[in-house]
Amino acid sequence: MNQPSTAPRVSACARSIIQQVKILENPYLKALKDGSMTRPCFNKTQEQFFFAVTFFPRPMAVLVGRIPDPKHRLDILHNLVEEHGEFDEKAFHHTTFQTFLRSIGSDPDKLDSLSVWPELRAFNSVLTASCLMDELEVGVACMGIIEFSFASISDIIGKAVVENGWVAIDDLVHYKLHSEIDERHAEEFFAVIEASWDDPARRYFIKQGLQLGAYILDRLYRDLYIAGQSHDL
Questions:
Q1: Residue 222 and residue 153: Cα distance in Å, rounded?
Q2: Which helix (H) or strand (E) segment is 188 a member of?
Q3: Full-model pTM
Q4: Of the residues 29, 95, 171, 198, which has the maximum number of CB atoms within 10 A of its CB?
Q5: What's domain 19-228's superfamily in CATH?
């Protein structure tokens, strides 16, 4: 990011945890980068990932209602509005991901008839529980580190699908946008809880949320790769 961090301590902790978890080196991303992932496996897992994309704003909306500071509430609300394309339905992330699926040869019209894999339901359920029922710092940190990680993940996936010849660079959507905006989105989450870092009791919950978010996102990609290969047989 070009601008100074508004949450330097939480961001630094997030970077450290991402490195410890090695999420950017998980088998899904490795297989995508080295060309060993099959096109059917990628398509099936991305069709399932749609259910994470379209669900993600819902726990975010829960957090908006729980944040006591109106300025911080507004920052996350703007994040939520961006998820909805600044009120332009064609730019909803729900919609742009469907466009991405179409670009790789999947049929977005069949999404409603797909069964949601348990890997996706588990991921979405953890997000719901952390944002609705856990300490505020846990939910905010969990969502923030997912956004933080997804910026790099989007860059990896975007480059890989172009290099694999699955999508022309001029036709790449969704992942290109997220590689550019998600670190800023993460900062907006982290800024909500940066001041709480000074309180050891609240810092504990921040670290818990960061660790949880990194874990479930890494686990999601690992499990998607395993399930995708079995569905590819």
A1: 13
A2: helix 175-193
A3: 0.92
A4: 29
A5: Heme oxygenase-like (1.20.910.10)
